[in-house]
Amino acid sequence: MTERKPVLEIEHLSVAYDSPRGPVQAVNDVSLAIYEEEIVGLVGESGSGKSTMAYAIMRLLKGVAYVTGGSIKINGKDVYGLSKQELRAFRWAEMAMVFQSAMSALNPVMTVEQQIADTIRSHQKNASSAEIRKRAEELLDLVRIDRKHLKSYPHQLSGGMKQRVVIAIAICLKPSLVIMDEPTTALDVVVQRSILDQIQEIQREVKFAILFISHDFSLVSELASRVAIMYAGRVVELAGSRRLRVAGEHHPYTEGLLRAIPRLTADDVVIEGIPGNPPNLVELPSGCAFHPRCAHATERCAVEEPRLQKTGQAEIACHLFQGREVPQHV
Amino acid sequence: MRYFFNRLGFLLISLWAAVTLNFVLPRLMPGNPAEIMFAKFQGRMLPQELHALELQFGFSNQPWPIQYFQYLGNMITGHFGLSFTYYPVPVATVIATSLPWTIGAVGFATLLSVIVGSFGGILIAWRRGGMLDRTLPIATMFFQAIPYNWSAFMLLFVFGFTLNWFPMYHSYGTNQTPGFNWPFLSSVLRHGVLPVATIFISGVSGWIIGMRNNMINTLGEDYVVFAEAKGVSARRLMFSYAARNALLPQVTGLAIALSSIVGGSILMEQVFSYPGIGFQLNTAVSNEDYPLIQGMFLIIALCVLIANFIVDMVYARLDPRVRTGGASS
Q1: What family classification does the UniProt entry report for this protein (chain B) (predicted)?
Q2: Where are the domains of chain B?
Q3: A108 and B320 in contact by Cβ < 8 A?
Q4: Regarding the domain delimited by B99-273, which CATH topology (the fold level of the hierarchy) does it fall under?
Q5: Chain B residues with CB inside 8 Å of A108's CB?
Q6: pLDDT tens-place string over residues B60-83
Q7: For residues B62 and A59, what is the distance between their CA atoms, to the nearest angstrom?
Q8: pTM (2 decimals)?
């Protein structure tokens, strides 16, 4: 895995929002790498900084949000070192994003074809109409939408179809990384399933890396090869998705998430939540942000912030695991 | 196409309703125009003469349904009766000479405020928080807050009376022969400046602020951020993605504004003695000129309906959701 080329390298990224009560640390010292053609999941509850991180990678943060530290590199290029013009050409050609609310990501007054054509023309000034037409048709074939819908307006498409069009636009310039920010949240379970299958299929065919953001733990661990779990703006665990299917030897927060997944095959369905509430990002708890809700918290947890450390096959940021070797048979 | 016929049908039905109301209302009032004229002559008119007048004005003692169909026939052929004020000039002629002035001056001023205001709104929303954004809405709001007849007086006083830059009354110089010749046309333009300016400065603020707010809303929409991310140029992003959608409520506003073009210019035309429909309507009301009032109302209704029909068509061009009747999600 290590000899593969990294597509995305995030190093010590921090993002803050200005608020009347002081700066809100939405992303706090996060480092993450994604390699070619790899699907990495990013899981966390609402407000844990998942989407903020996606916007930061795309350099789309606006208004009161700003990067306070760290660097983001795509294919070795520093995203924040590009000029405005370079950024416009770089974005979408190398990295693309499927938005959380893909339902409203399409311009209501333009046809599907116009919106695909706009994308191509913005990057390839002298693309001919015939070429664009052909490319648009191929893209629709790829996401399995009838070619006749090139002439359709967004309101004439169903939710699932709109989402597919957005995915088609995202992969239109063959980027090496596609960020998918909860791409199926607004869809019902059946459509969700078919879109996920298609994403996997297209990914295998076109070959690009995916950062898949979701709050649906089981969905992500099924799709991704590695999963990063975020809590209060920090990555608390980074592990192979196979490992995440079984409990034991995880960060206490991850254990909590695992316990919250109902098992349909179990006779006695006991779903345990994680006690307490998500943390206040303006005044983060001292030390480990999870310690007020953690059953294993010690005095050290309230004082010292744990670092992400290699623990067996995973990386975990928890004092429980530090300084001891974890048995690998789990 | 179905949409077109739908709107056309609506236009015809509303026209018919307006015409019918115009027929019923005067007949519910006591007396008729001939009797008013008869009374004016204070007994110096013979009953035969009254009867002659009644015939001339098109009144008869026939049953209502027959009168109604005669009336409909008259309306379609443009016979609105005779004006008292300009007796015996037909109402249709009075309207035909005044309507173009109003549509020209007020219509032009309204379109100008919509276009300038919308562009201004797009620009200041795009540079939100900039110099122009902080000054333009407040400056134009100041003029909007002034009653527009008062700003008409001020313009007339400053630029007409004191500085003598523009003529004080009427729509063209009395020494000009109306026709397609340069002296006449330039005279019309010079006479039109102050009336147009009055309506423009009293209306443009609403369009600027409306467009600015629509723009700020659409700029926050996901499709704008998505388009920005996919690399669309700033210019295209501003016009094809943001402004194109922000314009839709403005078009609805235009439909409402157009309805006041013909009827809502009474004060302005009075101040500038501009011989438009508002000026004539005022004359007609003060002279109890029923046929003229009736004819004016009909024409105003007609103009409003046609203007709205045109706006409906424009809206359908701009918004595909209206055209195909689909729901938006």
Answers
A1: Belongs to the binding-protein-dependent transport system permease family.
A2: 99-273
A3: yes
A4: MetI-like fold (1.10.3720)
A5: 223, 245, 319-321, 328
A6: 677 788 888 888 888 888 888 788
A7: 81
A8: 0.81
